[in-house]
Design goal:
This protein has 229 residues and is of the alpha+beta class. A four-stranded antiparallel beta sheet has the order 1-2-4-3, sandwiched between helices. It has a domain of 147 residues: 3-Layer(aba) Sandwich (NADH Oxidase), CATH 3.40.109.10. Helix content is 41%, strand content 12%. The relative contact order is 0.21. It starts with a helix and ends in a 29-residue tail after the last strand. Helix 2 crosses helix 6 and helix 3 runs antiparallel to helix 7. The structure holds flavin mononucleotide. Flavin mononucleotide binds next to strand 3. The site of flavin mononucleotide (FMN) has 12 residues, from strand 3.
Length: 229
């Protein structure tokens, strides 16, 4: 199992995954979705508690949720949404700014044009035209360790999709519309939306999919202690 070929293959899948925000319309066969979820569920979790619940949407069900959210989104573009503390820690804040500059530059949006930004944000709720929309929920009573577990599950899912020629966009944007989603999907009272995700085949030509997000070099976030002893 620990061969160079395996490492190369795994590295290739990890490196080639990137967030896709424009999809082709081709449907994803259901057995392939099952395969991807089978891989996702192998994720480790604290005391093996497996806190994930996945709601898969396609066709009319996906359209209906999109319409319900977009109706509210269009009417109230300035609804408060704060996935980060204000102000964020300086290093995260700088990267957040950098993201904003790159993200709005790609589809040619002026960052000061709030209406254009809201329209672009609205594309989230169409799942960027992906054939499959996913909504991930967790029991709201669970705390940070379980949310950490969730991240591992999501990365497993995205990599399993990537390895099968599919693309994804994880989407915190949906959290803003928890109550609409709860009503629409008939969520249990304890279910909190963790995020959504668009899944399908990437539109490779789309301008928005040319965005390449940089990463900090190792020196930016590591300390090596005792290695030179
Ligand atoms: C938990 C999570 C939530 C995200 N939410 C959104 C979102 O709502 N909309 C969006 O367009 N991108 C979203 N992203 C994508 C990030 O912007 C993206 O991962 C980051 O800029 C790095 O780019 P890359 O994924 O292409 O490497 C999210 C990513 C994660 C991990």
């Amino acid at each position: 199992m620990h061969t160079e070929t395996t490492a190369t293959m795994v590295d290739t899948v990890i490196r080639s995954r990137k967030t896709v925000r424009a999809f082709r319309s081709g449907a994803v066969p259901r057995p392939q979705l099952v395969e991807i979820l089978e891989m996702a569920r192998t994720a480790p979790s604290t005391f093996n508690t497996q806190p994930w619940r996945v709601h898969l949407l396609a066709g009319g069900a996906k359209r209906a949720l999109s319409e319900a959210i977009l109706q509210v989104h269009a009417a109230n573009t300035s609804a408060p949404f704060a996935p980060f503390p204000q102000p964020p820690p300086p290093d995260c804040g700088a990267r957040l700014d950098d993201f904003g500059r790159r993200y709005y530059a790609t589809p040619g949006i002026d960052r000061a044009d709030m209406a254009a930004r809201a329209r672009q944000t609205g594309r989230n709720f169409l799942f960027f035209d992906a054939p499959v929309g996913l909504i991930f929920t967790i029991d709201a009573a669970l705390t940070k360790h379980s949310w950490l577990d969730y991240g591992l599950f999501l990365q497993n899912l995205m990599l399993a999709a990537q390895a099968r020629g599919l693309a994804t966009c994880p989407q915190v944007s949906f959290v803003r519309y928890q109550s609409i989603i709860a009503e629409h999907l008939g969520l249990a009272p304890e279910e909190a939306v963790v995020c959504g995700m668009s899944l399908g085949y990437a539109d490779e030509q789309a301008a928005v999919n040319q965005l390449e997000m940089p990463r900090e070099p190792l020196e930016g976030f590591t300390r090596w202690l005792g290695f030179d002893d």
